[in-house]
Specification:
Layout lengths: L3 E7 L3 H11 L4 E7 L19 E3 L11 H17 L4 E6 L3 E2 L3 H10 L8 E2 L22 H17 L11 E2 L4 E3 H9 L1 H8 L9 H7 L24 E3 L18 H6 L4 E3 L7 H11 L2 H6 L1
Parallel strand pairs: 1-2, 1-4, 2-3, 9-10
Antiparallel strand pairs: 4-8, 5-10, 6-7
Helix pairs in contact: 1-9, 2-5
């Protein structure tokens, strides 16, 4: 039986996270969760939640900042935890604000029929994207804070003025943060941890760049589901995630799905969607949960 590892980055909305984990609870899956070190969280309260999957909360919790290198480090920690524990045919990175919109049978059948394929959604660069990795960032964890972001931008401006750049020899690429990758690629990424740390530790918002760059400059590039990059933030199937940027609240955040989006969510070919927020609309979350929850679980409640 082929097995999949779900890797989840979580930092709040834990009642919603419980529903996500229950929908992933399947004998063909194991689930690994990194909870932001800033969050108040007790893994003992989650004992017994999964009946079929192994549920692992990472002990070494990282303080994660929006746009920070800490996101890359948390993703690598999840990959290492899963790859060290078992062999998995696929590793799927999700946010705690995501939900599946297809059954586990449909998802597993698809990946069985596309075995060996890597699923990343590549984007074309915008003019401003290069500033994320070509200039030394004083405060790599400071992108989400006004003062440190201002200082970062001032220092980048000074570097531009004198023509100073870092990482001149790296062919960078740009992609959605969320991925589904094979065991081979997962181990390759882990093997490049030192290189990734060296290249990205003083960059900005590298979560959308580090894996794309690594894959594009490796033999795994030939195994991509969709090889041609697309315009940033367009809806695309290449990582099988449905993310609606056309109605996003800002350039940083995609649309939060509501109950009125039910027909849309059920009509798209993707397997997972983001994002959902039970403080914005819990009805859509509950409806997906009731629809996709395994029947045996529903009958026993």
């Amino acid at each position: 039986m082929k097995r999949h590892a779900y890797l989840i980055l979580a930092h709040h909305h834990f009642s919603q996270l419980r529903k996500l984990i229950e929908l992933l609870d399947d004998s063909r899956n194991d689930i690994y969760v990194h909870v932001d070190a800033k969050a108040r969280f007790d893994p003992k309260e989650w004992e017994g939640l999964c009946r079929h999957s192994s549920l692992v909360f990472l002990d070494n919790r990282i303080r994660v900042s929006w746009g920070g290198v800490s996101i890359m480090r948390a993703e690598l920690a999840l990959l290492k935890a899963a790859a060290d524990a078992h062999h998995y045919d696929y590793y799927h990175l999700l946010s705690g604000m995501d939900l599946p919109i297809k059954s586990q049978d449909v998802i597993h059948d698809f990946f069985d029929s596309h075995s060996g394929t890597e699923f990343l959604n590549f984007w074309n660069f915008k003019k401003t994207t290069a500033s994320r990795f070509r200039y030394y960032t004083l405060f790599p964890e400071g992108a989400g804070h006004f003062a440190t972001n201002l200082l970062n931008n001032i220092f980048k401006g000074l570097q531009m003025a004198v023509g100073y750049q870092i990482n001149r020899d790296v062919d960078f690429r740009f992609a959605s943060q969320w991925f589904s990758i094979t065991d081979e690629l997962a181990h390759y990424v882990i093997s490049k941890e030192d290189w990734l740390e060296k290249v990205f530790r003083h960059t900005n918002t590298c979560d959308e760049i580090f894996l794309a760059t690594l894959v594009w400059n490796s033999p795994f590039r030939e195994r991509l589901y969709v090889k041609e990059p697309v315009e940033e933030h367009v809806v695309n199937e290449s990582n099988m995630r449905f993310i609606d940027w056309t109605r996003g609240e800002s350039i940083r955040h995609p649309w939060t799905f509501r109950a009125d989006d039910w027909d849309l969510l059920m009509s798209v070919p993707h397997f997972w969607a983001r994002k959902f927020d039970d403080a914005v609309d819990s009805e859509i979350i509950d409806r997906i949960f009731r629809t996709l929850r395994p029947k045996e679980e529903t009958d026993q409640k």
